[in-house]
Amino acid sequence: MNIAFIDLKAQRARLKERIDAAVMRVLDHTAFVMGPEVGEFERALGDFGRAAHVLSCANGTDALALPLMAWGIGPGDAVFCPSFTFAATAEVVPWLGAQPVFVDVLRDTYNLDPDRLEQAIQEVKAKGELTPRAIISVDLFGQPADYPRIAAVARRHGLKLIADSAQGFGCALDGEQPLHWADATTTSFFPAKPLGCYGDGGAVLTNDADLHAVLVSLRNHGAGADKYDNVRIGMNSRLDTIQAAILIEKLAVFADEIEARNRIAARYRDGLKGAVSTPQVIIGGVSTWAQYTVETDDRDGLAAHLRERGIPTAMYYPRPLHMQTAYRDYPVGGGGLPATMAAAGRVISLPMHSDLDEPTQDRIVAAVRAFVG
Ligand SMILES: *Cc1c(COP(=O)(O)O)cnc(C)c1O
Q1: Which of 357, 140, 144 is nearest to 264 (CA)?
Q2: Do residues 87 and 78 lie in contact, with contact meaning Cβ atoms separated by under 8 Å?
Q3: What are phi and psi of 298, to 5 degrees?
Q4: Does residue 227 carry a pLDDT above 90?
């Protein structure tokens, strides 16, 4: 029997009745855009994420662009971000005419290296061509970046800090979520993310009331107090009511799912010890395990071996952004990207989701061990 990489069908079966009823309520009340479930979900997400304000939006990419737009980031500005991430993290920066500056990650956690970040900002300042404005830190594979140190760098240089928590929403460091340190946390509800909906969706969480007010306007074409006077250039980026209704139900079980993912990750760690290099989580950190990513010298061999046994794997990310066609002309700061390159050549992710049962997991572990020999 083939194993799922992320088993959306198992979760669907577990939550079927509640979600079907929630969707039917929306179909019946017909407020498909900005219906009551949208505000209800935003409040629930704010409670979960300990945020005073939540703006839901169309996807996790818009969620990143919206605060940058609100801060007026544009031509001549630099936004620092990792290269070892999904394209959306950097993509939103050139949307606004600004430039992403790629910074290396830590070799053990794959998250932004605070020392390299400091170095990159100093280099950009010394060069004088771009104005440092913001940092986008990514909670890669689900674990929090080193926010105390990254936020200290941001404060020192007067930069805004976004936590791109599309993979890590719900993660914690020393009992706090990334928003404790960041000006805004963004997330994605793409179905395969730890908190996914049944289509596209995203959100921006913040404790900054002024920022939130501008985000509300930007989401609705730059609307002003007078509905016939749009006061800024905005966009249309709304979360569908149906998706909000689904997310209310999924958020209700999300904490339990994070716990399940951590149980599964601990079993992987014990089972795979000595066979492959298992993930290191930052001290004091709790991951949401968007991915369970191991490293090995022969990952192509391992992928082929597992595929023959009906076990899917994935590689995030074999080609870092600065090596990709659309991004290769943007600056690299902080002494190059050696850790990014080393990781990119060795990582491979195993099936991971909250419904991964023990017999299936044991099959995966045994297959990995058989390959390594
Ligand atoms: C998925 C993802 C996004 C973008 O989310 P979408 O909802 O697909 O637009 C942004 N950043 C990271 C790190 C992601 O993994």
Answers
A1: 357
A2: no
A3: -115, 70
A4: no
pLDDT tens, residue by residue, 9-32 = 999 999 999 999 999 999 999 999
* Nearest CA residue ID for atom 14, ligand 1: 166
Pinpoint the alpha helices (H) of 103-233.
Answer: 114-127, 147-157, 209-219
Ramachandran angles phi, psi of 57, nearest 5°: -150, -170
Residue 129 near residue 115, CB atoms below 8 Å: no
> Of 6, 62, 193, which is best to mutate to test ligand 1, by the most ligand atoms within 8 angstroms of its C-beta?
193
Q: 109 C-alpha to center of ligand 1: Å? A: 19
DSSP state, residue 306: H
pLDDT at 183 over 80: yes
Residue 160 carries which DSSP code? E
- pLDDT band at 2; cut points 50, 70, 90: confident
Between 1.10.8.50, 3.30.2350.10, 3.30.470.20, 3.40.640.10, what CATH number should domain 8-105+115-252 receive?
3.40.640.10
* pLDDT tens sequence across 146-157: 999 999 999 999
Domain boundaries, the chain: 8-105+115-252, 254-372
CA 227 – ligand 1 centroid, Å: 32
Q: What is the CA radius of gyration of the chain?
A: 21
DSSP state, 141? G
Q: In angstroms, how far is CA 92 from the centroid of its own chain?
A: 14
Q: Which atom of ligand 1 is nearest to the CA of 59?
A: 7
Cα separation, 242 vs 34, in Å, equals 10
Ligand 1 neighbours (beta carbon < 6 A): 59-61, 85-86, 88-89, 138, 164, 166-167, 188, 190, 200, 202
Q: Is 324 a residue whose pLDDT tops 90?
A: yes
The pTM (predicted TM-score) of the whole model is 0.98
The listed CATH number (3.90.1150.10, 3.30.450.40, 2.60.40.3950, 3.20.20.10) that belongs to domain 254-372: 3.90.1150.10
Q: What is the pLDDT of residues 82-140, one digit of tens each?
A: 999 999 999 999 999 999 999 999 999 999 999 999 999 999 999 999 999 999 999 99
Fold match between domain 8-105+115-252 and domain 254-372: no
